[in-house]
Write a structure and sequence with these properties.
The protein is of the alpha+beta class. It has two domains: about 160 residues, no CATH class; about 100 residues, no CATH class. The protein is built from eight helices and eight strands; from the N terminus they run ααααββαβββααβββα. The strands form three sheets. The protein has a four-stranded antiparallel beta sheet with strand order 5-6-7-8, with helices on one face. A two-stranded antiparallel ribbon has the order 1-2. The protein has a two-stranded antiparallel ribbon with strand order 3-4. β3 and β4 form a beta hairpin. α1 packs antiparallel against α2. The protein is flat, with a radius of gyration of 32 Å.
Length: about 325
């Protein structure tokens, strides 16, 4: 095996996953919807609300992903469907909880008004009336009444649709990612991840060329060069039962200083490529006994011309020809 072969999920799934995964996604969506809606109503900052919306979807996706992994699901379409189901349930439950909260306030206000004037009877606040009230009132964005912007009418429906898309999209992306991790079809087990080691001062050029050429051995033969800020981290996904199914990943990392801040950058070399146990052993030997960094080739400058080697150049004066 000297060529690069990436992991490809089989698309199979277990019947247990088809039962527990949708139920888990629905439970997570409905259960987290109360906390989500409470924080949305409590926090008036739009940027924090956007982060809460994304986090709400991610949590639903994680719950669905764990259930799918228990059910041995390696099918991305099933993962997306289950996560979207939980996301839709969560968004709907959020509106329901908001309606129930407003209905309590409405009933208290109606009871207080009836005490003052027994003939002042308010109509019951139905879900339809509540939604119409939300559309008509909308939201006000701004620091003061003079500079605020009112969002109501059709804009409210648009915002609700965007909210649902964000929640369902984040949930689907997270659940799909968890189901597409390497899996051993022979042992019917998910692979475990471990770090093999880090090689400092690595020369990325030959490694990237080897990956482009599909050369697995070249991608596993790092060389070092003095002064290189990049380090290479190899990680291995391996089957805990047979120890034969293995997939290697490699990632470059380096630090960049911008002003007074240090930022960590990274770039993927390979991700989940199939390797043999003996190839992993050879890589471990390389990591344990790295080669000495080679100094970069010095730039050779052309010698300066000696006396008598410079030829005079005539420069024409303005208005005259040579």
């Amino acid at each position: 095996m000297n060529t690069i072969h990436k992991y490809q999920p089989s698309g199979r799934f277990g019947l247990l996953g088809l039962v527990i995964a949708p139920l888990t996604a629905l439970a997570a969506g409905v259960g987290l919807a109360y906390v989500y809606q409470f924080l949305i109503e409590l926090i008036p900052f739009i940027y924090i609300n956007i982060l809460l919306t994304v986090l709400f979807g991610v949590c639903i996706g994680v719950a669905a992903g764990f259930a799918l992994r228990i059910g041995q699901c390696r099918n991305s379409m099933i993962a997306i469907f289950v996560a979207i189901t939980g996301g839709v349930a969560g968004v709907g439950a959020g509106h329901q909880f908001a309606y129930m909260h407003k209905m309590v306030e409405y009933d208290d206000a109606a009871a207080a008004a009836a005490k003052v004037d027994p003939e002042d009877v308010w109509e019951p606040l139905t879900l339809e009336r509540y939604l119409q009230w939300r559309v008509d009132s909308g939201w006000s964005i701004g620091k003061s009444n003079s500079t605020s912007t009112d969002l109501s009418g059709v804009t409210v429906y648009v915002i609700w649709a965007i909210e649902a898309l964000v929640v369902c999209g984040a949930a689907a992306a997270m659940a799909r990612m968890m189901c597409l991790r390497p899996y051993c079809e022979d042992c019917e087990a998910w692979l475990q991840q471990k770090t093999l080691g880090v090689i400092p001062s690595v020369n990325p050029g030959p490694l990237e060329q080897a990956v482009k050429a599909g050369d697995l051995v070249g991608a596993m033969t790092p060389t070092q060069v003095a002064g290189s800020p990049q380090r290479l981290t190899y990680t291995l996904a391996h089957c805990p039962q047979c120890e034969k199914t293995m997939f290697l990943s490699g990632k470059f990392e380096w630090d960049e200083i911008k002003g007074k801040k240090k930022e960590r950058k990274s770039k993927v070399l390979v991700e989940h490529v199939a390797v043999k146990p003996e190839q992993v052993d050879a890589l471990m030997q390389t990591i344990a006994n790295p080669t000495q960094p080679v100094a970069p080739p010095a730039q050779v400058r052309a010698p300066l011309p000696g006396p008598g080697q410079l030829k005079p150049v005539k420069v024409p004066l303005p208005g005259k020809k040579l």
